[in-house]
Design a protein that fits this description.
single chain; mainly alpha; Na+/H+ antiporter like fold; globular
């Protein structure tokens, strides 16, 4: 029953802080993360991060990316995959080596350096996408490039994490890396094929409407999210891919009208949950080093993604927008850091440094998105 009270607190606080964020001209996602910090265990102590909160948050992230896929103009997205791939690769390679070199320079072990590098490669698709969607900029050239690059980044992040774990546990082989890479690529294209060739015709012919149609969409969404999670990829990749495929059905507008009601319930919980995880006591442990790593984390994405898009024809302003859009680490970075700590491969100090960088990049990047997209 405690979670029922948590929901009441979440929704009331989200309304209040969301309105404040709107008055200040900031995306609602930023306000919702602030709600998590304020009501969380390290400020007011009203709500704790529990397995139930985590489960609802995961549902929220899946629904967010599924609806983003449904709303994405797939024809426009197909035209930006080249710069998106370049940005995704650049935004993984440079931050990884900056994190590794910085950790070694400060006297940390190779294992800790590799994990810090892996943390800095992450980009939170959900956070940037929500901010761009709230601003009405998701279907712009730069918005779609960020979306595509974040998908590439997420897939490469899984590969990087597998390589790091393989190196540190002695189980790395060229065949295992090739298998993970091939699995990710095949899963992406197979979901798109099944969605567009098989499911879209079924949806178009199905005599279902209103609640039944929404339930059918959600069943497919969660089904493919589960499949990609079982394959060792992120569940949100499966949700986004099948959403992109189903965007071609002529029942899309009818479905979205009802799905938006589910969106406003679950998606804020995802962003509030990120705030719940922010422990300010960590900032006291290694703030100076954490600040240095944060600067390197921002530079890594700005330069890695920005230069990559600039080299394939984007102007300086467009490249800057893509770079800033890729800066937030969010929940993806926290997951990678958590794996390193719980596995005993990294110590609490490097974990604290990583968490500081994750928190600061997430909270600094979102307010910067609005002015760079307005300018």
């Amino acid at each position: 029953m405690e979670f029922i009270l948590d929901l009441a607190i979440f929704f009331i606080a989200a309304i209040a802080v969301g309105r404040l964020a709107k008055r200040l001209g900031q995306p609602a996602a930023l306000g919702e993360m602030m709600v998590g910090i304020i009501v969380g265990p390290y400020v007011l102590g009203l709500v704790k991060y529990t397995e139930t909160v985590g489960a609802f948050a995961e549902v929220g992230s899946i629904i967010l990316l599924f609806i983003v896929g449904l709303k994405t103009e797939s024809e426009k997205l197909s035209g930006i995959w080249r710069p998106a791939i370049f940005a995704g690769i650049g935004g993984v390679i440079l931050p990884f080596f900056l994190g590794l070199i910085a950790a070694l320079s400060f006297g940390f072990s190779v294992a800790e350096g590799l994990f810090l590098g892996a943390v800095l490669t992450a980009t939170s698709i959900g956070i940037t996408v929500r901010a761009l969607s709230d601003m009405g900029k998701l279907n712009t050239r730069e918005g779609l490039t960020i979306l595509g690059a974040a998908v590439v980044d997420d897939i490469l992040g899984v590969i990087i994490l597998a390589i790091v774990l393989g190196i540190l546990t002695g189980g790395l082989t060229l065949a295992s890396v090739a298998f993970i890479t091939t699995k990710a690529i095949i899963a992406w294209f197979l979901i798109l094929f099944v969605g567009t060739r098989l499911l879209v015709p079924i949806f178009d012919r199905a005599r279902v409407h209103d609640e039944a149609l929404v339930l059918l969409f959600l069943a497919v969404c969660f089904g493919f999210a589960f499949i990609t999670a079982q394959l060792g990829l992120s569940s949100i990749i499966g949700a986004f891919a099948i959403g992109l495929a189903l965007s071609k059905t002529f029942k899309i507008h009818e479905a979205l009208k009802n799905l938006d009601l589910i969106y406003v319930i679950f998606v804020p919980i995802f962003f509030i949950s990120i705030g719940l995880l922010v422990d300010f006591r960590i900032f006291l442990k290694a703030f100076s080093l954490g600040l240095i790593i944060t600067i390197l984390a921002i530079i890594g994405k700005l330069v890695g993604c920005g230069v990559a898009t600039f080299l394939v024809g984007y102007n300086l302003k467009e490249a800057l927008r893509v770079g800033i859009g890729m800066v937030p680490r969010g929940e993806v970075g926290l997951i990678v850091a958590g794996i390193g700590l719980t596995s005993g491969l990294i110590g609490s100090e490097i974990y604290s440094i990583g968490v500081i960088a994750i928190v600061l990049t997430t909270f600094l990047a979102i307010p910067l998105l609005k002015p760079v997209f307005k300018s």
